Amino acid sequence: MVRFLGGLVGLFFAGMLLLSFIWGAVSFVSAPPAPTAEGEFHKHPREIAWSFNGPLGKYDKQQLQRGFQVYTEVCSACHSLKQVAFRDLEALGYSPAEIKAIAKARQVPDVDPKTGEMSTRPGIPADHFPLVYPNDVAARAANNNAIPPDLSLVAKSRHGGADYIHSLLTGFTSQQGYKNEDGKELLKEFPDAKTPEGLHFNPYFANLNLAMAPPLTAEGQVSYGEGQPKPTVDQMAQDVSAFLTWAAEPKMEARKSTGIAVVFFLLIATVLAWMSYQNIWSTKEH
Question: Transmembrane region positions (predicted)?
Fold first, then answer.
């Protein structure tokens, strides 16, 4: 009798535990998370018809050179490019003499062979682009406690790649009166979502506010050479986005060429295998 009652008590508690679990699961499914300003107003990157899109896409070397110019004259004041060597610029169409001049114009860290102390020297083609700031402490001190990211791999580390970079650079706008695609106004829906002082509103950034001020602000901020497109803000943003895509994937064209050759080889191998099957096994019972 005692065992029977003990079994009933055990079943009772097991049933209560099961009911609690089911109730929690139903509550979790039926109660969606509360909407957030980021979830409601964050925008996906605008798609651009880049020359390097698709399996046959290739980089536009003139655009890459313009993008490098935008990086040099605008972005390099805060953002490093430490994974890229000066000699890699040969892929953009620069001559060895031009690459030597580009490298020589920059000071790279070195060690004095006599004293062992740190020093600097003019760069050579084998050097990588030097860091803008020696460490994170210096970067934070110069940028209101924010660390500008290195741009070497930014096109691969951000969802959307070149589209994201272009949208971010051209997406700075006023928060006042800003509405999403559904017509909802940000500050009416989320009064506490006002951009903090020192930050800048950009709906293409994950949390809507970032420390970087708009880097491209006016047409002609960078002067392109004769015969080049008009340096509008949108054009400069496209050019530097293409350049940063190349910096992250300098072997893209070679990889695509290899892929096409492999696909062609596999197609031929498939046809030969099918013909062999027809010639050898089609009359055999199996």
Answer: 259-277
Closest by CA to 53, choosing from 240, 233, 238, 252, is 252
Q: What is the CATH number of the domain that holds 263?
A: 1.10.760.10
Does residue 167 sit within a domain?
Answer: yes
- Domain span including residue 159: 39-78+150-212+228-274
78 is in an annotated binding site: yes
Nearby residues of 80 by Cβ (< 8 Å), 6 or more positions away: 129, 130, 131, 132, 133, 148, 150, 151, 152
Assigned domain for 73 exists: yes
- Residue 128 annotated in ligand binding: no
What pLDDT digit, counting tens, does each position of 130-169 carry? 999 999 999 999 998 999 999 999 999 999 999 999 999 9
Domain tally for the chain?
1
CA–CA separation, 143 and 129 (whole Å): 20
75 in a known ligand binding site = yes
Residue 5: pLDDT band (50, 70, 90) is: very low
Domain presence at residue 199: yes
d(CA 81, CA 23): 53
Is 217 inside any structural domain? no
